[in-house]
Model the fold of this input.
Amino acid sequence: MIQIKSFVFNPFSENTYVLHDETGEAVIVDPGCYDKAEYKELYDYIETNSLKPVRIINTHAHIDHVLGVAAVKAKYNIPFSLHRIDEPLLKAVKTYASNYGFNQFDEPEIDSYFDEGDTVTFGNSSLRILFVPGHAPGHVAFVNDGQQFVIGGDVLFRQSIGRTDLPGGSLEILLDSIRTKLFTLADGYTVYAGHMQPTTIGFEKKNNPFLN
Done:
């Protein structure tokens, strides 16, 4: 069974997730840690629970979701995967990071790309990938059907949606991604978003003002 641990990192209050199962193998999703205290919080959790990180996977490549990728990748000597369409977003981060006060950003090397229909495996567990652009052009979500949850990044929030005014964003595409991809999941699926608290598909179908 997959255990999900969330951390709130950096001034954008970004949610980083560590997923692990009974084997101890783990994947790290969207490591947004930046300062020493945040890295220590992440590393202490991994050490305390005797976890073995095997991969970094990102929903997308906006600055708040990639700040810690390079350091975490080096710490555990593990590969980093992203959707190919978001590679230009990743490469752009170094050009504007200092504008937000992030003067120590290191651009990570991408080791592999994934696309919709691919599967991310760790231990005895797996996540299937949905392509859900709109907030970012190469945005994906990670779904586990057995436990009915989605690691959704910045697509669907509790009674809100991801912003679409950034480069590559599109409100029309985002709403279509939610309606044709996420809202085809059962109402009981929990959505672990890139910001704020978790929600469920059923709650958002009934209560999200952007989708009613």
Remarks:
- The mean pLDDT is 97.
- Residues 36-48 form the longest helix (13 residues).
- DSSP finds six helices and 14 strands in the chain.
